[in-house]
Each structure stands twice: as C-alpha cells, then as structure tokens.
Amino acid sequence: METQEQQTDLARHYIKTFSDTAREPFLILNGDLYVVGANASFYKNFKVTKEDTDNKLIYDLGNRQWDIPELRTLLENILPKKKVFNDFEVKHYFPKIGQKVMLLNARKLDDTNQILLAIEDVTLKRAVAANLADYTKKLEKGIAEKTVELNARIDELLKLNRLMTGRELKMIELKEEIVDLKNKKEVDRDKKART
Q1: Is 85 left (phi over 0), alpha (psi -120 to 50) or beta?
Q2: Following DSSP, what letter does each residue of the chain receive, concatenated?
Q3: Angle value at C-alpha 24, between 19 and 29, nearest 5 degrees
Q4: Distance (Å, rounded) from C-alpha 87 to C-alpha 78?
C-alpha cells in the first residue's frame, strides 16, 4: 500500500505530466503561491525561463509583471473559498510580449494543496472579433447607403415609367383621334360624292 507521501508525489507527477502535454500555459502553485512548476507553453508564451519562474512567488515573476490586482483577488480571496474559478478575464501589459487579454482558470487540488492555474491568451481572438465587428458595421453601413441609392433610383424609374405610360396613353388617344378624323373625313367625302 502506498504512503501518503507516495500518493502526493504521484499526484504531482500526474499534474506535471498533464500540464506539460497541454497547449495552454499552466502554472502549478503551492499553497503559499510559489511556483512549483510551469509547462513549456508557459515559458514559451511569456518568454521566461524555468530558472526565472520555478520556486518564485507568482507575484515576483518577470519583474513583478504577474502582480496583477485582479489575480491577487482571485488567488487570495476567491480561490480559498470556492476552490475553483473559470474564465476570469485579465488585461495586462507584459514588457516582453505587450498587451494581453487572458482568461484564467484555476483549481485548488485538495490532495496536494496545490493550485493549477491555466492561462488562455485570447488577445488574438478578441482582436479578430473587434475587427469582424468593425467590418460588419462598415458592411451594414455600405448596404444601407446602397439601399438608399437603389430606392432613389427605383423612385426615379417609377416616375419615368408613369411619365412614359402617360405619354403612351396619350399616343394611343391621338392615334384613335387620327383614325376617327380619317373615318370622319371619308364619311364627309362620301357624302359630298353622293351629292
């Protein structure tokens, strides 16, 4: 039978293995918020090294760039009570990588008293969504303008059609009048010829 320490070591091994295979950046923190480990994605995305990260208080990472008030609130106030938080949005400027919009998910792991903190960088998604929204607004505005132009052109064509229809009706009346006049002239000529 495994001892408590062996179970804890095994749990840590599974956590580390899981985080190393994930594409999202992960941090594993101990109960005092020191970094126990991070996955390769974290090091790559935030342009830091293992030496600069491991065994450091999360708030001290990268010249204190992780000392974010919202993150402090989550880790120190919300997580101890709820043991989990999901999709908490944090916007922050990092000196090496610029402005980032991140969704943070964390879970306190009871067996090991560790915290698994997942960081999803949604900066590009948000930028694409904003660009798409701008494009949609421009497209809707362009469609509205073209609709106004087309409606004006339709009104113009309807007026022209009414005018042309009116002229055509007048032409028909005039042709009928001409026929009537010709018929009347022939009748008058026939009367004269008989007399």
Answers
A1: beta
A2: ---HHHHHHHHHHHHHHHHHH-SS-EEEE-TTSBEEEE-HHHHHHTT--HHHHTTSBGGGHHHHTT--HHHHHIIIIIHHHHSEEEEEEEEEEETTTEEEEEEEEEEEETTTTEEEEEEEE-HHHHHHHHHHHHHHHHHHHHHHHHHHHHHHHHHHHHHHHHHHHHHHHHHHHHHHHHHHHHHHHHHHHHHHHH-
A3: 50
A4: 13
Tokens 């935030």, residue?
46
Contacts of 87 (CB under 8 A, 6+ apart): 103, 104, 105
In DSSP terms, 93 is beta-bridged to 99
119 touches 92 (CB < 8 A): no
Provide Rg for the chain, Cα atoms. Answer: 41
- 87's torsion region: left (phi>0), alpha (psi -120 to 50) or beta? left
As a whole number of angstroms, the distance between CA 111 and CA 12 comes to: 10
- Decide if 36 contacts 54 (C-beta within 8 A): yes
pTM above 0.85, yes or no: no
What is the per-residue pLDDT across 91-143, written as a single tens digit (0 to 9) for each?
Answer: 888 878 888 899 999 888 876 778 889 999 999 898 898 899 999 999 999 99
